[in-house]
Amino acid sequence: MDELAGMVGDPLMQRALLAALLVGLAAPVVGTYLVQRRLSLLGDGVGHVALTGVALGWLVGSVMGLVPQDALAVPGAIVVAVIGAVVIELVRERGRTSGDVALALMFYGGIAGGVLLISIAGGTSANLMAYLFGSISTVSRGDLGLTVALTALILVVGVGLRTALFAVSHDEEFAHAAGLPVRALNVATAVVAALTVTVSMRVVGLLLVSALMIVPVAVAQLVAASFARTMSLAMAIGVVVCVTGLSLTYWYDLSPGATIVVLAVGVYTVVALVRPLVQRRRPVDPHPQVPDDVRVAA
Amino acid sequence: MTAAVLARGVRVVLGGNEILRGVDVTAQDGEVVALLGANGSGKSTFVRALVGAVPLTSGQVELLGRPLGPAVRWERIGYVPQRVSAATGVPATAGEVVTSGLLHGRRLRPPRRSRTAVRDALELVGLADRVDRPVRELSGGQQQRVLIARALVRDPELLVLDEPVAGVDLTSQKAFASTLTTLAARGRTVLVVLHELGALAPLVQRAVVLRHGAVVHDGAPPQPTREHGGADHDHVHPHDPADDLAGEGPVGLRGWGP
After folding, report:
1. Looking at residues B137-141, what average pLDDT do you find?
2. Dihedral (Cα; A189, A195, A196, A200), 10-degree rounding
3. A287 and B247 in contact by Cβ < 8 A?
4. Which chain B residues have a beta carbon less than 8 Å from that of A181?
5. I need a labelling partner for B236 at 20 to 30 A (CA). Which of A2, A54, A173, B106 fits?
6. Record keywords: Nucleotide-binding included (chain B) (predicted)?
7. CB B240: neighbour CB atoms within 10 A?
8. Looking at residue A296, what DSSP letter applies?
9. Which one of B89, B103, B248 has the shortest CB-CB distance to A178?
10. What is the domain partition of chain B in residue ranges?
């Protein structure tokens, strides 16, 4: 108990826990729309592109002689991730390149660009590790402020416009026929996904960001019947695994990002295994009201 | 009398293929018009272009007297896309799908008391008891009815339907025809894409037939040719006809409305 109080009393841990809680809350909101659109890997694509943004921010910072050198890494990631996500969306909309190939181009271009730029900036790939795998223990007050602001924006758009974003993700053709601003809503989804990636970067790292967006949704849709319930359940699961995973690293020397993601995958496995046992129902006729139209001679 | 649908010289080119080659279609207020044609004739592309889901290469479209675009009163138009399944990645209930039909133009959040409107629309298609059921657990015919309810929830003046009875048996086609009759009697305009007139034949006032992206007939509904109209013709659809629109007995699709 004392140890728990010690953890909560530690200012460094307080900031880290708050950041983890916010990320756990926000990431599954965007993830729900991505799963709905069958774009589960979009977060990964944007995450890779964000690495180029980190390196670009670093390069600009070192050219300007800023201390620390990576002061512009997060703003760089935000700018480049948003541009990358919007480009992916526009490519998808035109349908010229399949979403699959567009994402592949983003993956490889993003990683290669990041490594190339960081070496131009006089750094090494090792400098990128904190962004690839997360570094929540170094969350500063400024970082936290940015996380709070971006999380609020993600929640306002993702939850506030839920019916409209659902309509567009569910049936784009119908959304057009309803005169909805389809492109604006699609771009909004892409921008919010990019912001989620950059917010989650400090907690789980760019390589595992997508897991935090998708895995809680994968768990929730095993048990939920509605879109709204799937989203709220995924948010709850996201918060629980983020806070629990991070707390574990206070006592055990583990990577926070990896612990959180392994925990989430573990929850998925348990729910997937237990569900058939709990929901064991007798199979029933799905159309009991349909009259018998064929008479069989006895 | 004004035209609810006015399309002039509609040309659509997709991926280098000229799908529509200058199509003119008019539907007067309160008219029931069928759009017929073989597979690949461009009839589906035409209605998709009509509602803005496919960009026009050239030509003009006016819906309810307004040019296609933000000026159209989208809240007065109901569209039922051609669809086999209403289910997608994340579970969604029938109620949630129908609620999305309440949004239009700049209205990005459902209005207050939308729950009642949604329940009423599902009642019209005989699925009021399924409002909280996930659509993926419904049969193909029930999912199609959910999509029809999504178009009806906003009480449209103009209803555009793309093969609403594809893969649905004759009994339910008749039930569907009787609902469309009720709608037409209330002065609503209906533009319906059909593969064959079937049970809707008595209702259709005018038929437009497309062939290779051009209008080849505009006038009285054509009589089916022998091989399609004969009593011995066994028309096979690729869908599962097991579920039907009248599956729930006489409740079916009778009363539409408040």
Report:
1. 78
2. 170
3. yes
4. 106
5. A173
6. yes
7. 12
8. P
9. B103
10. 1-64+176-222, 74-156
Which of B224, B184, B192 is closest to B208 using CA atoms?
A: B192
Contacts of A290 in chain B (CB under 8 A): 243-244, 247
pLDDT at residue B237 is higher than 80:
no
Sites in chain A below the pLDDT cut of 70: 1, 95-99, 280-298
What confidence tens digit (pLDDT) does each residue in B80-127 have?
988 756 566 788 998 999 999 999 878 888 887 888 889 988 887 778
Partner-chain residue, chosen from B74, B88, B247, that has the shortest CB–CB distance to A170: B88
Q: End-to-end alpha-carbon separation of chain B, Å? A: 26
DSSP state letter for B133: S
- In angstroms, the separation between the Cα of residue A246 and the nearest Cα of chain B is 28
Asked if A235 has any chain B CB less than 8 Å from its own CB, the reply is no
Task: Tell whether A62 is within 8 A of chain B (Cβ).
Answer: no
Residue of A nearest to B147 (CA): A174
Choice between B251 and A17, residue whose per-residue pLDDT is larger = A17
- CA separation for the pair B60, B49 (Å, rounded): 10
pLDDT at B252: 35
- Beta carbons within 10 angstroms of residue B231's beta carbon: 4
Widest Cα–Cα separation across chain B: 53
Q: Which domains does chain A carry? A: 2-277 (1.10.3470.10)
User: Taking the CB of residue B55, how many other CB atoms lie within 10 A of it?
Assistant: 10
Query: pLDDT of B157-178, one tens digit each?
Result: 999 999 887 766 566 666 677 7
Out of 3.40.50.300, 3.30.200.20, 3.30.420.10, 3.40.50.1100, the CATH code matching B1-64+176-222 is 3.40.50.300
A257: nearest Cα among A222, A215, A223, A195: A215
Fold matches, B1-64+176-222 and B74-156:
yes
Assembly ipTM? 0.83
Question: Looking at domain B74-156, which CATH architecture does it have?
Answer: 3-Layer(aba) Sandwich (3.40)
pLDDT value of residue B112: 79
Report the interhelical angle of A2-9 vs A227-251 (nearest 10°).
Answer: 100
- Among B1, B5, B60, smallest CA distance to B191 is for B5
Distance from CA of A47 to the nearest CA of B (A): 22
Q: Give the B-side interface with A, CB within 8 Å.
A: 48, 51-53, 70, 72, 74, 77, 79, 81, 83, 86, 88-93, 95-97, 99-106, 108-110, 132-134, 137, 139, 147, 150, 160, 243-244, 247-249
Beta bridge partners of B12: B20
Average pLDDT of the residues in B55-61:
91
Paired tokens of A105: 């181009």
pLDDT in tens, A9-32: 788 888 889 999 999 999 999 999
